[in-house]
Fold this sequence. Notes:
The protein is α+β, with helices and mostly antiparallel strands. It contains eight helices and eight strands. The protein has helices at residues 9-28, 33-50, 55-74, 81-101, 107-110, 113-122, 134-140, 144-174, and strands at 2-6, 179-183, 187-191, 200-204, 212-217, 221-228, 237-238, 243-249. A four-stranded antiparallel sheet has the order 1-4-8-2. A hairpin with an 8-residue loop joins strand 6 (221-228) and strand 7.
Amino acid sequence: xxxxxxxSERMRTFLRIEFLYQxxxxxxxxxxxxxxxxxxxxxxxxxxxxxxxxxxSEVLKELERHAALLANYSRQRGVDFExxxxxxxxxxxxxxxxxxxxxKFINSVKECEFLNMIKHRSSIPGGTCMFDLPDYxxxxxxxxxxxxxxxxxxxxxxxxVCDAVTEVLWLTRQAIxxxxxxxxxxxxxxxxxxxxxxxxxxxxxxxxxxxxxxxxAGKHRFTVRFVIWEGIDARPTQVVDDIPFLLALC
Length: 250
């Protein structure tokens, strides 16, 4: 099992977009109208994140940074140049698509009256029931092909930024090979050097380990505390044994 902890606000935003985008695409293809509701609700959450700050600019900066790193890597001896070039081309494709969308890429979706109506009613518990939004209830009962086509149209404007975020996160994770570590008595602390500027912390434990990490991170150090699940009615308890795990500072 893998657990991740963002070490920057930019990475926190990227991880949330990745999670919501995967969730939206998963539910959008389901025949059940409750899945369609979940897809629309998730789409509205993505819009809320993209509406705060300039996520597009942040993603473009990350794509350019990774392109430069890959270009430097391709000049090293013994490197599979063709494979690295494929990665560079893919990054450039994502960057070009995102740049072509322009800074107002979400305006058409943000200005959709139908979605705004759902967004407004979603702030009320149960506010999107059939008697509240009969037009929404009717849309939810349309054939899957028609709903899917509409959802694809809504996500078209978001696809470039969401796909770019996915690419950045994949490159970030793949850039660092996890190393073996030991949490003595279930506790592991790490002090970062001045030249270290990781943005993502990955902790990997075997699926049958019977424990999971609680991670707290600051600007100069982080702590991984392994605990045991005690059920929903009790707090997890700290492990007292030494726990082997894999760590990647990306």
